[in-house]
What does this fold into?
Amino acid sequence: MKDRLITLGSALAALILVIVLLAPPPAPPSKEVSIPTSTNSGRYGLLGLKRWLDASGVATMSLQSRYDTLFSDETITASGNLLITSAPALEPARDQELERLWYWLSQGNDVLLLSANSDAPQWSQSAQGSGNSSVLRQLGYQLLVESNDYTTEEEQQDAQEEPQTSLAEDLRRLGDQLEELKYQQITLTPLRAHPLTRDVNGISARTLPAVEPPTRLLGLDWPRNALVILRDADARAAMWEARVGQGRLWVSRFADLFGNVSLGQQDNARLMANIIRSSIQPGGKVIFDDMHFGVTNLYNPEAFFGDSRLHNTLWFILGFWLLYVVGYANRFMPVNNKRPKVQNVDFACAVGGYFARRLMPKSAAMALFEHFFNDVRAYYQKPLNGEPVWDLLERNPRITPKSITQLQGIYFALERKKRFNLVKLRNQLNYVRKQITVRNQITL
It folds into this structure.
């Protein structure tokens, strides 16, 4: 009996230790922060914009799932839609999502990206995403603060491979000083005559003087400047228009231009009306990106952990474990594992695992590129010497310039010993290989 009491006391002590070490600390009380969604009625919410559009007869939609829904939802037309999103997002978008967004945008749809680069509203301080850098890179652009007009191809590739610092991290470095900063009310003016600035004399915005804003929006594939739509009092660009395939991308370095408070100031509503008039086609919709700001119909972990059935299950498991610990037969007999029979597939797996552990990733990548180049050469009846065939790939109409640029970036990164994803490289090569070998393909 004494041994059982000692065992029970030790088990309870271990349980308490695990709870103390793994239980999260209580979160400090915090007031609700307004977020830029079509369901939020706070200062930075877009509920007022949605109600205004609904009353005006403009079709709207709250996107509460990932960007794949833009293709799977039958109520969304193939083109002539406008997606309104903000950055940095509270829930970061996946790479596959951003690739689908690029394709959706290039098919004749438009995207309005409201980036918190200058105003830094309160919701952006707790963002989990990587700012607007990942979204813009996937769409083929980047925001720069440098004064030079263009960047070299090598600098652009390094900018894509280097980790990007989110706006939230920059704001956290300010610490206690952030509360002492005062917002300044400024007016943005049109740079030139443009359909978006028709009857627009001034746009009201708020800015933080301590935050250095970007000055130009450049393309990644080649040094192309985006068209400047608005500028501030210091003649710095505040809003750009860029082309992505058949679609348009509007980027603002101010996130709070069409919130519940700012929408009614100066000509902000007029600017939004011009954007909708220029973007929405018959059957098109204004889509609010609510999913990446917490308003989602996907799995909700908070609801799962708050379910009483989960708590009852954990209590049952705990009681069964304590019963096992202090029970009479509290030890199981060892299991006699039957020795498995060695087969040919086991030998193949052992040899493959050996090469996978010994072969350097760079050597494997170079071998993949060599086989890929030989496959392309064989298709075009060229000598099989493993040399690059970028000219043949560029002349193939079924291969997008984006795919070629990604392959070139990885190929030249091997010479600089940069890190890369071997699995993603293999999938990209297989995708391009399938595009080349399609029947009835017209080649130049």
Remarks:
- The chain has two domains: 47-293, 360-436.
- The chain has 16 helices and eleven strands.
